[in-house]
TrEMBL record:
PANTHER family: GAG_P30 DOMAIN-CONTAINING PROTEIN. Residues 16-211 form the Core shell protein Gag P30 domain. It comes from Hirundo rustica rustica. InterPro entries: Gag_P30 (IPR003036), Retrov_capsid_N (IPR008919), Retroviral_Gag-Pol_poly (IPR050462). One of its GO terms (biological process) is virion assembly. Residues 306-346 are annotated as: Disordered. This is Core shell protein Gag P30 domain-containing protein.
Length: 346
């Protein structure tokens, strides 16, 4: 430096450092005091030019949030310094002529930095009514449009803030996302710089998630219907198969394995292929009757046709004769019918 004076050299923060810091804070609406304290610690004791502070603020906060912070910072200055210069001069919107190498300029820079920290603490609306305005949560079945309309009504009713102003839009945008249903909130928060997106853009993104949710619900419903129909069709096939196989087994009446190609009538179930049925018959199965033809042996409760033949038997040394009608059995080895009469012969 010429003249042997003392010069100041800044080591400005990098944009990546500021972006990483942004991920650690909750924001001025959710935690204004915590956000202010974290930023104060992050900035440290260094003195930053107006341009450097503007760059940092643009990365961390949206335009509307910066307006809230500036308005709150001006009120803080004017309250603490009623006889001092206007608050607009302490928080200018255009580059001021503050020289960083002179004491007066560095004083302005330091005051500007401190007013930003104080403005963050005071930026969010306070009081019981303001809390009611922003404590609402989106319901699962509530559409994004209905959710945004409810936020607008709450803001007007409880906070007194006009949702059409820049400040109102900033508050709406932040609460619309942070208090949305989890699937919508997570989707939008993945969008880079969503704080700087318009409400219309955020509403469109939320609507996509909401509609996709209905589409997935419709797919699950269709899948459930398809499974139910398939189960009902299988029940019909099983019922038809069971009836047909019973007739086949009754007619077979033998102990052997049956392998047959079975093609049921499936006119009510189009597209179903024929299939092979394998059955192992383990019981004596059928008896042929005059009235009903072949019928399962277990269903015979009484005699069938009485045979006309009579036989007489006796035991050696026994004076009794036994008269028996019929031959005493069928081809399956099971008696069809038997009746015994005894008579003494002297």
């Amino acid at each position: 430096m010429g003249g042997g004076g003392t010069g100041f050299v800044n080591a400005p923060l990098t944009s990546s450092e500021v972006r990483n810091f942004k991920k650690e804070i909750k924001g001025i609406l959710e935690d204004p005091i915590g956000t202010a304290e974290q930023l104060d610690q992050f900035l440290g004791p260094n003195i930053y030019t107006w341009e450097e502070m503007q760059s940092i603020m643009k990365i961390i906060f949206s335009q509307e949030e910066r307006q809230l912070i500036r308005a709150a910072g001006i009120k803080v200055w004017e309250k603490e310094n009623p006889q001092g210069p206007p608050g607009e001069d302490k928080m200018p919107t255009v580059p001021p002529e503050w020289g960083q190498n002179n004491e007066e300029g560095r004083k302005h820079m330091n005051e500007y930095r401190n007013l930003i920290i104080k403005g963050i603490k005071e930026a969010a609306p306070r009081g019981q009514n303001a809390k009611k305005a922003f404590e609402a949560q989106q319901e699962k079945e509530e559409s994004p449009t209905e959710w945004l309309d409810r936020l607008r009504k709450n803001m007007k009713q409880y906070s007194g803030i006009d949702p059409e102003t820049d400040v109102g839009k900033a508050l709406l945008r932040i609460n619309f996302v942070t208090n949305a249903w989890p699937d919508i909130r997570k989707k939008i928060e993945k969008i880079e710089d969503w704080h700087n997106k318009s409400l219309d853009n955020l509403l469109k993104e939320a609507q996509k998630v909401y509609v996709r949710r209905d589409e997935e619900k419709a797919k699950l419903k269709a899948k459930f219907i398809a499974v139910t129909m398939r189960e009902n069709n299988l029940k019909k096939i099983q019922k038809h198969t069971s009836t047909t196989l019973e007739i086949k087994l009754i007619k077979t009446g033998k102990r052997r394995k049956i392998e047959s190609q079975y093609k049921p009538s499936l006119s009510s179930i189009p597209g179903m292929p024929a299939f092979t049925v394998g059955v192992l018959l383990m019981t004596e199965a059928a008896i042929r009757t005059k009235e009903r033809g072949w019928i399962h042996a277990s269903r015979i409760k009484g005699p069938v046709d009485e045979p006309k033949e009579w036989t007489i038997t006796s035991e050696p040394g026994d004076t009794k004769l036994t008269l028996k009608r019929g031959l005493g059995g069928n081809e399956l080895g099971r008696p069809k019918w038997s009746k015994k009469h005894t008579q003494d012969h002297t």
